[in-house]
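Worked example 3 (structure in, sequence out).
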């Protein structure tokens, strides 16, 4: 049973068209970052970036280096789409995109993380076997089939993403639709739909639909009687998100995934009218079956348990943010804060208030005020800046207050803790974050 489920040869049309969509979308993402000014605002203008803690050495290239970097990534996307040097192009893109993802958190989006995972998966899939430059140049690799596990890897990854996104929404601020109200407040001036987005009844529909869509869309696409309805609901949902939230390629990447749920004959009729039909459906067990199953097992165990880690960390993740990233907790909170930093020279006792504008862009400054890892990293940066001048200092976060989902501002960081000389705890609660003062859980 398991052998047939995973190792049966099936038509590969869905993988081939997804490769094309994926390549086009990542090319648009990378080229778009150049022309929209995203690179300039996020990677060029800041004097330093807030990367994932422990990777402080991973900083943007100087000068115009990041423009060239993204141009190369975009070109790799084109190569993936046409299937040229596919294996090299997909691996190179994965490495370069992962570096960008880990390099900065100021403009963090969950779909950047999803892109890392899909890019990693695509490195190992036989997506160049048909309708590619590689297949035309080397007929030996040509094939109209793939193992069934290729499809189920993508389906399983999507199921994890959507299920956790749905479950995460089942908390007070989403269920009373207050979070939807906050999300829509700055969209009142949208042409035609701006007024609609401010209505309570619209928030109720969006809130309930968001939970149910995320929870049921993968099963509904898998089940043939509901597949077409699920597809059109998916089309509406993701295009709505594209218009309202303007989140880059993510809605279109989500739609691209739907090709794995349709019959190969349907995909061929739409996209590959000249592609030969695969009809053998034989079972072909790979020689490295045990290694393959072991790797997939480890990967999906990590994917299942990583989003749960915040349950094992003291206090509410909505307050502390500890365990929030990499957990598919999407559009769940709005944070704003205020903070000052006091620097004390360890030798002279001289105290100085940090002028944050001398170090941070406006967007970085907003993140530092509201997120504990940004606060800690900025304290570390200040310490290094003073060390360059030959001074050993302590750095304290004072008057730190945050508001979660428009609640009243509450004290956030212990002002007595020297953050410059306090290590960051990756796996447990950092107790210099004050105990949660959320009035509604």
């Amino acid at each position: 049973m398991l052998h047939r489920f995973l190792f049966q040869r099936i038509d590969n049309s869905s993988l081939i068209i997804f490769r094309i969509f994926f390549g086009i979308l990542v090319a648009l993402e990378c080229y778009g970052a150049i022309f929209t000014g995203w690179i300039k605002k996020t990677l060029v203008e800041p004097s330093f970036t807030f990367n994932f803690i422990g990777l402080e050495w991973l900083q943007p290239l100087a000068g115009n280096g990041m423009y060239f970097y993204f141009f190369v990534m975009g070109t790799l996307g084109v190569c993936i789409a046409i299937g040229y040097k596919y294996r090299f192009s997909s691996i190179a893109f994965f490495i370069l995109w992962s570096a960008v993802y880990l390099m900065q958190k100021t403009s963090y989006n969950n779909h950047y993380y999803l892109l890392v995972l899909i890019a990693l998966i695509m490195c190992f899939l036989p997506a160049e076997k048909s309708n590619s430059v590689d297949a035309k140049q080397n007929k030996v690799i040509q094939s109209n089939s793939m193992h069934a596990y290729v499809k189920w890897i993508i389906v399983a990854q999507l199921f994890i993403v959507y299920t956790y996104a749905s479950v995460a929404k089942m908390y007070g601020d989403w269920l009373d639709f207050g979070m939807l109200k906050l999300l829509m407040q700055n969209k009142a001036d949208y042409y035609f739909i701006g007024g609609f987005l401010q209505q309570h009844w619209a928030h109720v529909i969006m809130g309930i639909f968001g939970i149910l869509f995320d929870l049921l869309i993968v099963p509904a696409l898998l089940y043939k009687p509901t597949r077409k309805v699920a597809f059109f609901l998916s089309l509406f949902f993701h295009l709505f998100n594209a218009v309202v939230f303007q989140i880059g390629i993510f809605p279109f990447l989500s739609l691209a995934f739907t090709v794995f749920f349709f019959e190969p004959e349907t995909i061929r009729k739409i996209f590959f009218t000249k592609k030969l039909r695969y009809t053998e459906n034989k079972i072909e067990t790979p020689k490295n079956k045990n290694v393959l199953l072991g790797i997939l097992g480890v990967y999906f165990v990590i994917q299942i348990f990583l989003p749960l880690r915040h349950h094992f960390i003291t206090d509410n993740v909505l307050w502390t943010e500890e365990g929030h990233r990499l957990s598919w907790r999407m559009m769940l909170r709005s944070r704003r804060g205020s903070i000052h930093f006091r620097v004390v020279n360890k030798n002279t006792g001289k105290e100085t208030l940090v002028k944050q504008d001398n170090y941070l862009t406006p967007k970085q400054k907003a993140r530092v005020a509201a997120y504990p890892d940004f606060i800690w990293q900025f304290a570390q940066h200040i310490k290094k800046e003073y060390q360059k001048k030959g001074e050993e200092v302590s750095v304290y976060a004072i008057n730190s207050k945050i508001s979660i989902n428009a609640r009243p501002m509450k004290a956030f960081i212990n002002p007595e803790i020297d953050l410059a000389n306090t290590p960051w705890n990756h796996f447990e609660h950092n107790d210099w974050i004050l105990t949660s003062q959320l009035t509604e859980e």
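Notes: The mean pLDDT is 95. DSSP finds 18 helices and six strands in the chain.
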